TrEMBL record:
Reactions catalysed, as given in the entry: ATP + protein L-histidine = ADP + protein N-phospho-L-histidine
Positions of the PAS domain: 267-339
Keyword Transmembrane helix annotated: yes
Descriptive protein name: histidine kinase
Cited Pfam families: HATPase_c, HisKA, PAS_3, Response_reg
Enzyme Commission code: 2.7.13.3
Amino acid sequence: MKKYIIIVPIFLILLGVIIFYLVRWNEIKATTDKSATIKELSYELEIQNQKHKLLLSRVTLEVNYDAIIASGRSFRSALEKYTTILSRSNDEVLKKLAAKIVTKSKRLEYVYEDIKSDTALIKNSKMWLSKSYKKYLKDIKTSKEITPELMRYIFNIVNANNIYQLEELEPLDIDSKIFNQDKLRVHLNLLYAKRKSLIELNTELIENDIYIDLDEVTSYVNDVIEELKKETSSIVKALLMSTLFLIIFGLIVYVKEVLTRQEADNLKKELQQFVDALNESAVVSKSDTQGLITFVNDKFCEISGYSREELIGQGHNIIRHPDMPAELFKELWKTIRNKKIFKATIKNCKKSGEAYYVDSVIVPMLDVNNEIVEYLAVRYEVTELINSRDEALMAEKAKDEFLSNMSHELRTPLNAINGFSSLLKRQIKDEKQSKYIEHILESSSQLIGLINDILDLSKLQSGKFILDYHRFEPYSNIYSLVERFSPNIETASLNLVLDLDDSLKIVANGDWLRISQIITNLLSNAIKFTPAGGEVRLSANHNDDNLRIIVSDNGLGISKEVQEKIFMPFEQADSSTTRKFGGTGLGLSIVSNLLKQMDAQIKLESEDGNGSTFELNIPIKEYENKGESKSEKVASIQESKSILNGHILVAEDNITNQLLIGVLLDELGLTYKMANDGVEAVEMFGKEEYDLVLMDENMPKLSGVLAMNKIRSLYKTDVPIVSLTANVMSGDKEKFLRAGMDGYLAKPIDNNELYEVLQSFLSHKE
């Protein structure tokens, strides 16, 4: 109805205008008709007035007074009707004219009576004079008083046709001796007097003539009629325009209403299709402000197992699963009562007791006053998705456990190989045997590198990889890193060009371990794929907080078709690469992922047979705090390494690793006891006093963490327990420290790290 708020007033205004003009038109018509009647009566009255005046102007001794009387009566009757109509008019001008005509007409009545009376006296006198004239004709010869002059005078009077002829006769001085001269004198004087009276009455008749007033009425009425005609014309035009506009407006409203209805029908159809689709795919319900269900669709009944009758009037607690925390539903009600939309994945319970999951969206429905009237809930069943997610998480957990176990199982023997090889290298002086040991160390290092590549790729793909930012010196670190490749360069008969800019002589903040891993991979590939006599070049600079490294060679090169493919895991330029040059195809994939972690970029330019150029741009800022670098710290440890004091319990199930750890502890002057598993470690801890416990994690009977917990609970001790394990997956160190371990050492054992941990918990011998 809101769309008609403007339409209705406009329509009513137009309708009011049309009604006003119609009423006015009717008033004009009535006024015009009345004016026409007045005009017609004016003309009739003018004619009667002219007739009456004509009769009066022909007054003679033989005039028909009955005709004058009849004419006067008719005129007065018409005049009375006329003045009545004028006086009843609402027009002030006509009222004034009517009053004026009435006044004149009343005066004319008296004039008419006087004229009638005077003409009657004149007629009587003329009749008497006519008789006297005949008598005087007989006596004219015998009487001396009757003179010819008198006879001519009387003759003129008798033969006068109107008062104007009488007016021309001058009064005659009659001799007193004439017979009956007194009567003659009386009649002559009467004629003289009345003729003068009639002349004055005629003058007054002209003065009180209503012809001018009638003409003025007629003229005024004509003007009124003309104005009314003009107004009528304007009204007709206005009516036509208003009607036309109303028709057009009505047509527009009608067409708009038709289009609106069509659009509404289309929207209704679309909405119905949406509702149908929603009902087919979604679980829909409504509830009142108290949370009681007022509507459910078929899908709700189908999934929950409840009938519509069982659900209507109930709260949603009927399908709530006991595993769901109450805090979630408190948050739900808090959200929707604040007129906000609530979203969550909720575990529900079917009538059969079977659990199912839904993604829920609960929307408060508001009225025109912005008050909540009900709640609409739309849910999509995601049980399969949740199950798939759980299965994926279990698979991810299984993969992590597999990689952890694989890492542990591989690192455990490698720990012994590396450890004993290092010991033998320090003890054997024979150059040939020392060379064999170097090959063993190099092979074990390659194997550890392969394990690290696999673990790094897994961390990167799972999103568990974390960069470790610390201070380092780009110039010296890159120089030292490249120096390590000198034997490889000599063996491959290559020329190595190193171009380090002075801008690298800063202390930077970054994860040098990962940067060195990237450079090592690129240099290794350049050396591997460049034939003898070729050249490998590394140049680097630091500018605008950006470390730019370029590694190039003039080796085999990479075709355009495979340049993108080589950054994918387990992919190489072709299948023969592994057979000819070795490798797993993980290196560049790890490089690409590491650079993404650093928000860095890599650019490759290469042609098949014309060498390759890798350009790195890594965001690196200068280090603000001037502390001791890691290399300085290692050097400091090597220089300050001294004999320690302490008795140590070592829990290790691998015999070879037991021997290696024993040798390392002997070199540091420490005493120790070996426990073959976790249970034995708990028993041995209670028999002697120890200054430190080195605890392996993956042991039979009892794991390292459980053994630590038993030692702490049984003996209430604060002796430090350090995890010594091959579990080096992302988060393993943090996991052991959270579990209660006081320190962490990874296998294969790094001598410097072992000494640093022991030194932090043990005292030095004096």
